[in-house]
Amino acid sequence: MATNGQSRLVRATESDRTRSVLFVCTANICRSPLAEKLLQAQVAGLDLTVRSAGTQALLNHPPVAESVDYLRRRTGATLKHRGIQLTPQLVHGSGAILTMSERQRAEVVSLVPGALRRVFTLRQFVRLAPHLPERTLYRGVDELAEAMARCRAVAGPPRDGEDDIVDPYGGTPEEYERSFALIARGAGRAAELLRARLADAECESTPSGL
Fold it and tell me: pTM (2 decimals)?
C-alpha cells in the first residue's frame, strides 16, 4: 500500500506529464542523451522538459565521444550529461516516453504497466503521426501520446526492425553515423509534431501531414 508521501509523489509526477518527454536507451550515454539534446534545441520555446535515462544506465558516466562530436557538428552545442537510471517516478512524470528499440519499450512497460499508451519507440512515434486526426490540438504531451496510441491499429505493425535504432556502441564510425542520423531525423519530426499539435504551442506554421 502506498504511503501518503508516496501518493503525493505520484500525483506530483503525474501533473508533470503535460509538459515532458523522456528518451530511453540502455546505458544512457550514447543514443538517448543525444536525442534529448537534439529535441531540446528544437522545442526551446514550448516550455517542455526533455530528459533521458537508461534501462541499465552507466550511472554518472559521461556520454561517449561520438555523441559529443555529433551534437557539436550538428548544433554547435556541448553534450553535458551523466548517465541516469530509469525509475518508475521518471516514467510516471513523463507525458511521452520514447525509446530507441522495441525491447526498451517493453522494458519500460514492464516497469510501469500503466504507461503502455504513452510509450513508443522514437521511430514509431514519428511513423504514427500522419494517422492523427487532422487539425486536432492537444492540451499536453500526455494527451497527444494517448491519441498517438489510438493510431497503432490503423498504422499496422512495423516491418522487421523498422521502429528500432540500432545501438552503435563499440561499432564503426559509419554505424554511429547511421544511428545518429536516424535519431536526428526522429527528433526533428517529433519537434515538428509537438509544435504543430500542442494547443498552446507558438508555431509559425503547421507542417502538412502532422
Answer: 0.90
